[in-house]
Protein: Heterodisulfide reductase subunit F
Amino acid sequence: MNNPYLPVPMRIEKVVIENDARDLKTFDLAFVNESDWQNFKFLPGQFAFLSIPGAGEAPFGIASAPHEPLVKFTVKRVGVFTTALHELEPGATVGMRGPWGNFYPFELMQGKDVVIVSGGFSFTTLRATIAHLLLPENRKNYGRILAIYGARSPGELLYKEELKEWEKRSDLELVLCVDRLNGASWPQREGLVPNVLKAVAPKGENAIALVCGPPVMLRYTHPVLEELGFAPENVFLSLENRMKCGIGKCGHCNVGPKYVCKDGPVFSYAQLLKLPPEY
Ligand SMILES: Cc1cc2nc3c(=O)[nH]c(=O)nc-3n(C[C@H](O)[C@H](O)[C@H](O)COP(=O)(O)OP(=O)(O)OC[C@H]3O[C@@H](n4cnc5c(N)ncnc54)[C@H](O)[C@@H]3O)c2cc1C
Ligand code: FES
Structure:
C-alpha cells in the first residue's frame, strides 16, 4: 500500500497571475512520473496537499476537472507556504499528496438543475465542477446549470479568459457580479452574491445548490436558498478547516464528531445543522 504521507513530484508547467492585487496565482502541474498520473483518480470537490522542502505543506482544492491534462490549483498568498509557492516559476518541482476528501454529489445531481453559488477565490473546486459538468458525456445528465460567481471587483474574478468563453455557451447560465463598481463601467451585475441570487431566483424544486465562499457569504446565502425552496439536504457547502494530515488521523480538522478532511470537505446543509456551529 502507498504511504499516504509521501508526496509525488509535480512539475510546474504554467503560472497565471489571476488578480489585480497579484496575490492569487494559478499553478498548472504535470506529473513527473507517468505511473503517478495513472493512479491519480479524483472528482471535483476533492483537495490535495502541495509541499516544498523547507517550506512545509498546505491543502488546496483541486481546480481542474478529471479530464484535463494538468492538475490546477489556485492559491492565495497568505503566509509561509503560499509565499514560497508564489515564488516558484515554471520548471520548478513541488510535491503533491492526495486526492483527499469527498466530492460534490454528482450522482444525486443527475436529472436535476444545478445551481452554483460562489464568491471570491473559493470558486476553485466549482470551476472544476463546471468544467466537469460541461463535458458532453456529462452535460446530458443534468438539467439547467446556473452559476452565480462574484468577487469584490472585476479584477478579482478568477479565470477571466475562461469565463468569457463560458458566457458564450447556451448550456450554461453564467451570472457574474462584483460587490462594488465605484462608478466604473462593467457589463455584468453590481451586487453581493446573496442579493444577486435572490434577483435571479432559481427554483429550488428538483435542484441542487453547491455553495462555496467566505463565511459571510455563506451566512447570507443560505436564507435566500431556503426562501427559494432549496431543502437543507439539497444544499452542499465545502469547508476549509485547518488541517495537518488530511486523512483522518491527527484530529486537527474536526467539527464535532466529523473530520473535515475525511468526512468532507463537502457537507450538505442538513449534515451541518447537526454539527456544532464551529465552521
Ligand atoms: C480543504 C481545503 C482546501 C483549500 N483550498 C484552498 C485553495 O484552493 N486555495 C487557497 O489559496 N487556499 C486554500 N485553502 C487554504 C490554504 O490551505 C491555506 O491558505 C494555507 O494552508 C496557508 O498556508 P501558509 O503556510 O501560506 O499560511 P500560514 O503561514 O500557515 O498562515 C498565514 C495566515 O493564514 C491563515 N490561515 C492558514 N490556514 C488557513 C485556513 N485553512 N483557513 C483560513 N486561514 C488560514 C493563518 O491564520 C494566518 O493568518 C484550503 C484549505 C483547506 C483545508
Ligand atoms: S487533518 Fe488530520 S484528521 Fe483531518
In short: The chain has two domains: 8-100, 106-238. The pocket of FE2/S2 (inorganic) cluster (ligand 2) is lined by residues 243-246, 248-253, 259, 261 (CB under 6 Å). The mean pLDDT is 95.
